[in-house]
Amino acid sequence: PPPPAPAPLRGCPPGPGPLLPPLCAPACGVPPAWAARLGATGFLISKCCFPLFKAKPGKAKRVRTIFSSEQLARLEQEFSRQQYLVGQERCLLASSLRLTEEQVKVWFQNRRIKWRKQSLEQQQAKLAKMGLGTPQR
Protein backbone atom coordinates (compact mmCIF):
# COMPACT_ATOMS: atom_id res chain seq x y z
CA PRO A 1 0.00 0.00 0.00
CA PRO A 2 1.15 3.57 -0.66
CA PRO A 3 2.44 5.49 2.37
CA PRO A 4 -0.16 7.68 4.08
CA ALA A 5 -0.25 11.31 3.02
CA PRO A 6 1.52 13.59 5.46
CA ALA A 7 -0.76 15.46 7.80
CA PRO A 8 -1.09 19.17 7.05
CA LEU A 9 1.11 21.42 9.14
CA ARG A 10 -0.49 22.77 12.29
CA GLY A 11 -2.27 26.03 11.49
CA CYS A 12 -1.92 25.64 7.72
CA PRO A 13 -5.02 25.47 5.56
CA PRO A 14 -5.64 22.15 3.83
CA GLY A 15 -5.19 22.00 0.10
CA PRO A 16 -2.33 22.62 -2.24
CA GLY A 17 0.78 23.70 -0.42
CA PRO A 18 2.92 26.72 -1.23
CA LEU A 19 5.20 26.54 -4.24
CA LEU A 20 8.24 27.10 -2.05
CA PRO A 21 8.87 25.40 1.29
CA PRO A 22 8.24 27.52 4.37
CA LEU A 23 11.19 28.99 6.22
CA CYS A 24 10.33 27.23 9.45
CA ALA A 25 10.69 23.65 10.54
CA PRO A 26 8.24 21.09 9.09
CA ALA A 27 6.49 20.83 12.45
CA CYS A 28 5.88 24.60 12.59
CA GLY A 29 8.41 25.10 15.32
CA VAL A 30 9.72 28.49 16.30
CA PRO A 31 10.82 30.30 13.14
CA PRO A 32 14.38 31.55 13.02
CA ALA A 33 14.88 35.12 14.21
CA TRP A 34 15.84 36.29 10.71
CA ALA A 35 12.66 34.87 9.12
CA ALA A 36 10.45 37.81 10.07
CA ARG A 37 12.80 40.25 8.34
CA LEU A 38 12.62 38.30 5.10
CA GLY A 39 8.87 38.80 4.77
CA ALA A 40 9.28 42.35 3.51
CA THR A 41 11.85 41.27 0.92
CA GLY A 42 9.54 38.85 -0.86
CA PHE A 43 10.75 35.55 0.57
CA LEU A 44 8.07 33.05 1.42
CA ILE A 45 7.04 32.97 5.05
CA SER A 46 4.50 30.29 5.87
CA LYS A 47 1.39 31.53 7.65
CA CYS A 48 1.54 28.50 9.92
CA CYS A 49 4.73 29.90 11.42
CA PHE A 50 3.35 33.36 12.09
CA PRO A 51 -0.10 33.21 13.71
CA LEU A 52 -0.23 37.03 13.74
CA PHE A 53 -0.53 37.03 9.95
CA LYS A 54 -3.59 34.78 9.92
CA ALA A 55 -7.03 36.33 9.70
CA LYS A 56 -9.49 35.10 12.29
CA PRO A 57 -12.45 33.22 10.87
CA GLY A 58 -15.89 34.70 11.41
CA LYS A 59 -16.12 38.41 12.09
CA ALA A 60 -14.31 40.76 9.76
CA LYS A 61 -12.14 43.43 11.35
CA ARG A 62 -14.19 46.53 12.09
CA VAL A 63 -13.10 49.63 10.22
CA ARG A 64 -12.22 52.55 12.48
CA THR A 65 -14.73 55.39 12.21
CA ILE A 66 -13.29 58.75 11.26
CA PHE A 67 -15.54 61.48 12.62
CA SER A 68 -15.75 64.84 10.90
CA SER A 69 -15.06 67.97 12.94
CA GLU A 70 -18.77 68.85 12.80
CA GLN A 71 -19.73 65.43 14.12
CA LEU A 72 -17.16 65.66 16.91
CA ALA A 73 -18.33 69.14 17.90
CA ARG A 74 -21.93 67.96 18.13
CA LEU A 75 -20.99 64.79 20.03
CA GLU A 76 -18.94 66.86 22.50
CA GLN A 77 -21.84 69.30 22.87
CA GLU A 78 -24.23 66.47 23.68
CA PHE A 79 -21.71 64.90 26.07
CA SER A 80 -21.34 68.16 27.98
CA ARG A 81 -25.12 68.25 28.30
CA GLN A 82 -25.41 64.65 29.49
CA GLN A 83 -22.93 61.79 29.67
CA TYR A 84 -25.39 59.03 28.84
CA LEU A 85 -27.59 58.80 25.76
CA VAL A 86 -30.17 56.05 25.50
CA GLY A 87 -33.01 55.00 23.26
CA GLN A 88 -34.66 57.74 21.26
CA GLU A 89 -32.00 60.36 22.09
CA ARG A 90 -29.22 58.18 20.70
CA CYS A 91 -31.30 57.31 17.64
CA LEU A 92 -32.03 60.95 16.87
CA LEU A 93 -28.44 62.06 17.38
CA ALA A 94 -27.13 59.23 15.21
CA SER A 95 -29.50 59.99 12.37
CA SER A 96 -28.82 63.74 12.52
CA LEU A 97 -25.05 63.06 12.32
CA ARG A 98 -25.44 60.33 9.68
CA LEU A 99 -23.87 57.77 12.01
CA THR A 100 -25.13 54.45 13.29
CA GLU A 101 -26.46 54.13 16.82
CA GLU A 102 -23.57 51.75 17.52
CA GLN A 103 -21.04 54.40 16.50
CA VAL A 104 -22.67 56.97 18.78
CA LYS A 105 -22.90 54.47 21.63
CA VAL A 106 -19.22 53.52 21.37
CA TRP A 107 -18.15 57.17 21.05
CA PHE A 108 -20.01 57.97 24.30
CA GLN A 109 -18.48 54.95 26.05
CA ASN A 110 -14.99 56.01 25.01
CA ARG A 111 -15.66 59.64 25.93
CA ARG A 112 -16.82 58.64 29.42
CA ILE A 113 -13.59 56.70 29.91
CA LYS A 114 -11.59 59.74 28.79
CA TRP A 115 -13.63 61.99 31.11
CA ARG A 116 -13.04 59.69 34.11
CA LYS A 117 -9.31 59.60 33.39
CA GLN A 118 -9.16 63.41 33.14
CA SER A 119 -11.17 63.79 36.35
CA LEU A 120 -8.84 61.45 38.21
CA GLU A 121 -5.77 63.33 36.96
CA GLN A 122 -7.29 66.67 38.04
CA GLN A 123 -8.11 65.24 41.46
CA GLN A 124 -4.55 63.94 41.87
CA ALA A 125 -3.14 67.32 40.81
CA LYS A 126 -5.28 69.11 43.43
CA LEU A 127 -4.16 66.69 46.13
CA ALA A 128 -0.53 67.09 45.08
CA LYS A 129 -0.85 70.88 45.38
CA MET A 130 -2.20 70.43 48.89
CA GLY A 131 0.68 68.08 49.67
CA LEU A 132 -1.50 65.06 50.31
CA GLY A 133 0.06 62.77 47.67
CA THR A 134 -1.88 60.52 45.34
CA PRO A 135 -5.12 58.82 46.40
CA GLN A 136 -5.41 55.05 46.45
CA ARG A 137 -7.72 53.48 43.88
Automatic annotation (TrEMBL):
Q: What is its main location?
A: nucleus
Would the keyword Heme turn up in this protein's UniProt record?
Answer: no
User: Per the UniProt entry, what are the Gene Ontology biological process annotations, in alphabetical order?
Assistant: central nervous system development; neuron differentiation; notochord formation
Q: Which domain of life is it from?
A: Eukaryota
Task: State the UniProt keywords alphabetically.
Answer: Developmental protein, DNA-binding, Homeobox, Nucleus, Repressor, Transcription, Transcription regulation
Might you report a single GO cellular component term?
nucleus
Residues the UniProt record assigns to the DNA-binding region sit at 60-119
Is Transcription regulation there in the keyword field?
A: yes
Instruction: Give the SMART domains listed for this entry.
Output: HOX
InterPro entries (alphabetical): EMX-VAX-Noto_Homeobox_TFs, HD, HD_metazoa, Homeobox_CS, Homeodomain-like_sf
Its name, as the record gives it, is NOT2 protein
Please spell out the taxonomic lineage of the organism that makes this protein: Eukaryota, Metazoa, Chordata, Craniata, Vertebrata
